[in-house]
Amino acid sequence: MRTSVAFLTLFSLSLSASEPSVFGAGNLNAPNPYGLTNEEKLILENKKEIQTVLQKHNVQNAKVETVTERLDGLQTIVEGLAQATNEHRQKLQRLGDDNASQSVSELKKQVDANTENIAQFKSLLEELSLVVDGINADYVTKEQFAQLISQLKLKPIAAKNGETPAKMSATAIEKEAFRLFGEKKYAEAQSMFEQMVQKKHKTAEAHYMIGECLYERKAYKEAVASYKESASRNEKALYMPTLLLHSGISMEKTGDHAMAKAFYQATISKYAGSGAAREAQERISKLK
User: Fold this and answer.
1) Global pTM?
2) Mean pLDDT of all residues in 171-193
């Protein structure tokens, strides 16, 4: 009996001692702890503060991770932009180099073309210089011409009606001179053309026709002198292509092929497409 009473007493005390734990009093992990001692309350407050700090820390970590991810993304974008910029710069440089090369190539073509043109102009100037030098060398002075006339024993020619040039009008002399030339009476025609010069009637054409008369009579050096005088008076005359061509032929006949070539080149260059230019081209191709 005593044993049973003792057992019941111990059981009752056990229940009394363990009651707070059994019913949640003093449980710091419970959602709403109660029955806490002062120490337990202090522990609970510290625990709540720690949890708050941990929550803030976790939020901050999450924000930091988000910012870090964004920074990483921005860095990737920046790196991509830098790479693209560098590629664009290289492309622009290549395009610039290509354009520069193209510009240099075009400029080189222009320079080559200009150089070729300059060479052609220089060659033509040299040829014309030779022409001028040759003409000057072969120039016949008035005194020499008078002596030549004396040697040829040319006499004043009367017109068909018996009128002498001294009594004829300039127009009549011109008409008679061309008539005689057309009849291949070159010596007589030359005399009439000389009368035109004396009367100062169409002197440029008269000197040219004197040259033609001398040319037909194979007096080539004298012909060139007359051609020069004519050209100096009117270098735009319609007969200039023939004048240059016959000057070239005259020089060729005298054996001066360099001068002949210069006259032919001048004829071809200045009067391209003319009959005189075509004949000059044929003749120059046969010169050595």
Assistant:
1) 0.46
2) 91
